Amino acid sequence: IKAEIDAKLAAQCGVKIEDLRPWHCHDPFFQEAPTVSDVNMDEFYAKADILKLCKEFYNGIGLPVDDVIGRSDLYEKKGKSPHAFCTDIDKEGDVRVLANIVPNEYWMGTMLHELGHSVYSSKFIPKTLPYVLRSQAHILSTEAIAMMMEQFSKSADWMVAMGIKVADPKKVNEAGAKARRFEMLVFSRWAQVMFRFEKAMYADPDQDLNKLWWDLVEKYQLVNRPEGRNLPDYAAKIHIVSSPAYYHNYLLGELFNAQLFHTIAREVLKTEPAKALFNGKKEVGEVLRKKVVEPGATVNWNGLAKLATGEDLNAKAFAQDLQ
What's the pTM? Predict the structure, then answer.
């Protein structure tokens, strides 16, 4: 996969493959897969009402988010944070999202993601639970639900079910599946760099951290370090300062996402994961509420995985999705 990406990046940038460096990767950390597809997903959402689609989708699975949207700050304005996040204000049901929606695939996926967080919150966690237990079992479990919903934005079948016109659904589905596979493979390697760098840094903070960083980048991401450079490039990654020892949660969340998605496809929708759609399936929302959301923090992350899927958290489904 990396060889395919490199060939396309080299052609785009007009350089030899061996001369590729981090700045050719679209994202200098190479944490996201570069755009190398011939299918432009943005065109399907150029005239779409992102919020309307989100409301219809979540209402369709029995997890309405209209009240969350009504309390949220969702469009660009001067001086506003350019990012997106969901926050549970009081653990009493006041859940809000900050976003900067524009009509493209990125923001379609982002809003499905953030509203996925919103349904795994005190909005649906029972108020009969003690206040301190009205939260997710673990950060990886809420990331899993958000990631599960986000992945539909690249599915032509999902688009068609939501009333979006797609001239060649088969081609778009194939492009979306490939983009998703590229994303997961690229991100899985990036997560190795972050996890192993922080682990080694805290074990021996006096070592040459610049060398450690680029050694890991070359080993796991197969990206060449810049020559003649000795600067703290690792410090440009905000999580190392703002969210230390956090990054593994994203990859663990992807494992739980895949494991839970495969379980729902098999046991609820009676189909294979590649064909599983949630649109209009209130039984999916019911399973998510009963087996993932409503337990809150009364179980730990692995207990939740076993409750929801019948197995301890593992990488089997994730690996199957990458084949």
Answer: 0.93
